[in-house]
Amino acid sequence: LKASLKDQGIIGPQKSKKQKRQNAQDAKASTDKRLQRHEALASIREQFNPFQFKTSARGPKFEVTTNKPQNDKLAKGIQGRPGLAKATAEQRRKETLLVEMQRRNKVGGIVDRRFGEDDPNMTLEDKMMERFAREQMKSHKKNTVFDLEGSDDDAEQVTLTHAGKTLFDDDDMEVGRDDFDENISDMESDDERSARKKFLKRLRAEEEAAEGEGEDGQPERKKTKKEVME
């Protein structure tokens, strides 16, 4: 190895200060020398690293004569360079397969749904004014849906429906009309009628007791058990 490095001029006696100064001033010569040094080291590395090449276990089976010139690799029986082929394949996979794996299950892109972004004729002020107006309308609709103090002109009138039909007629929805004014005796059930009668009877008894108390000036005395049994 030392002999090979010395033959290529990589190692040897140290240069004097004058030679180093001349080499530093000549930039082109130093660049060429650096390239030659790199090529020499690469050739020496190939010579002393047998695992970098794939060679045949034995020489050629038959000796042939041909007029084609053979290079050094064919003369030495070199069939390939597995190290270089592996590095090239890894680099190719990083550039193609790795990018696909990183982008898997990812959907890129942003959809701009802002008003006026796709219209080149609108200025920035027009876009901002239109967006502000739409936001105000949206907030006004949300606030007036359940506004009890608002008038019917501000929002659409909400009607109750069942099975696609309105529960009330137009006459029933008149302003100032009360549901208690209607005759609901036909709609009442037997239980409702009996409860209503009991309520009226109790109310009438309370009124009579109040009238009796007003005539005597004193509340009516509660009867004793003896008086009740007699």
Automatic annotation (TrEMBL):
<dbReference type="GO" id="GO:0032040">
    <property type="term" value="C:small-subunit processome"/>
</dbReference>
<keyword id="KW-0690">Ribosome biogenesis</keyword>
<feature type="compositionally biased region" description="Acidic residues">
    <location>
        <begin position="169"/>
        <end position="191"/>
    </location>
</feature>
<dbReference type="GO" id="GO:0030692">
    <property type="term" value="C:Noc4p-Nop14p complex"/>
</dbReference>
<comment type="similarity">
    <text>Belongs to the NOP14 family.</text>
</comment>
<feature type="region of interest" description="Disordered">
    <location>
        <begin position="163"/>
        <end position="230"/>
    </location>
</feature>
<comment type="function">
    <text>Involved in nucleolar processing of pre-18S ribosomal RNA. Has a role in the nuclear export of 40S pre-ribosomal subunit to the cytoplasm.</text>
</comment>
<keyword id="KW-0539">Nucleus</keyword>
<feature type="region of interest" description="Disordered">
    <location>
        <begin position="1"/>
        <end position="91"/>
    </location>
</feature>
<keyword id="KW-0698">rRNA processing</keyword>
<protein>
    <submittedName>
        <fullName>Nop14p homologue</fullName>
    </submittedName>
</protein>
<feature type="compositionally biased region" description="Basic and acidic residues">
    <location>
        <begin position="29"/>
        <end position="40"/>
    </location>
</feature>
<dbReference type="InterPro" id="IPR007276">
    <property type="entry name" value="Nop14"/>
</dbReference>
<feature type="compositionally biased region" description="Acidic residues">
    <location>
        <begin position="208"/>
        <end position="217"/>
    </location>
</feature>
<dbReference type="Pfam" id="PF04147">
    <property type="entry name" value="Nop14"/>
</dbReference>
<dbReference type="GO" id="GO:0030490">
    <property type="term" value="P:maturation of SSU-rRNA"/>
</dbReference>
<feature type="compositionally biased region" description="Basic and acidic residues">
    <location>
        <begin position="218"/>
        <end position="230"/>
    </location>
</feature>
